[in-house]
Amino acid sequence: MDHTSPLLNDLWGIPWLDFNLSTVLMTFISSVIVFFICFFAARNLQMKPTGFQNFMEWIIDFVKGIIGDTMDWKTGKVFLPLGLTLLVFIFVSNILGVITMGVWGHTLWWKSPTSDATITLTLSAMVIILTHFYGIQVKGFKEYGKDYFRPAPFLFPLKIIEEFANTLTLGLRLFGNIFAGEILLGLITKMAMIFVPFTTVFAILPMLAWQGFSLFIGAIQAFIFVMLTMVYMSHKVSSDH
């Protein structure tokens, strides 16, 4: 099985501008799934939540807990929609390639969009940019700029390096875990096809075990991404870190 991805090259006459079509497709599918999850959870709101509404409110409380652990709730409540969106979107994106993998013409089309470093690094860059935006909005540009020279001015270069390091580690951590999981699933699938039906029978148990483990990893990675997002945000908007 060849896990190559289809590329759209030379778009709008720019030779170096490539788009991974399968990543674009899966990102769109993830977004649609997240939209319908939130839509069906909120379309018939009740004072005594039941069913899907109860599950969604549990997720909201979970994100509230993450924010409350990293900063004062009065300051952090504005970040609830951001944390909720990231948690649900990343989790859905993580598990799409775990449930199944779609290959058409030796090209991998159905996969987890977070198994593409472009997506995860874009998410992490977006998060870091938002931390700067809200930091300036809450503290003001002058006061925010002073934080880079505290507690000592000579730390300024290290703090600039830290911003780039946070972007890379936040994105590559998510990418590495999801990509490695998909690679192993692909290897198990190859093993299952070596000598059908005998190898298929022996590959079923490892496949199911790894899919279950990957679901757990997908949830943990979504939690870690949101937790670190709120930690980075608290460093920018809070006066006492």
TrEMBL record:
Family named by the database record: Belongs to the ATPase A chain family.
Name by which UniProt lists this protein: ATP synthase subunit a
A matching Pfam family: ATP-synt_A
Function description: Key component of the proton channel; it plays a direct role in the translocation of protons across the membrane.
GO BP terms in the entry: proton motive force-driven plasma membrane ATP synthesis
Keywords for this protein: ATP synthesis, Cell membrane, CF(0), Hydrogen ion transport, Ion transport, Membrane, Transmembrane, Transmembrane helix, Transport
PROSITE patterns: ATPASE_A
Naturally occurring in which organism (per UniProt): Saliterribacillus persicus
Sequence intervals crossing the membrane: 20-42, 78-105, 117-136, 183-207, 213-233
UniProt topology in membrane: Multi-pass membrane protein
Gene Ontology CC annotation, any one: proton-transporting ATP synthase complex
GO MF term (any one): proton-transporting ATP synthase activity, rotational mechanism
Record localization: Cell membrane; Membrane
Main location: membrane
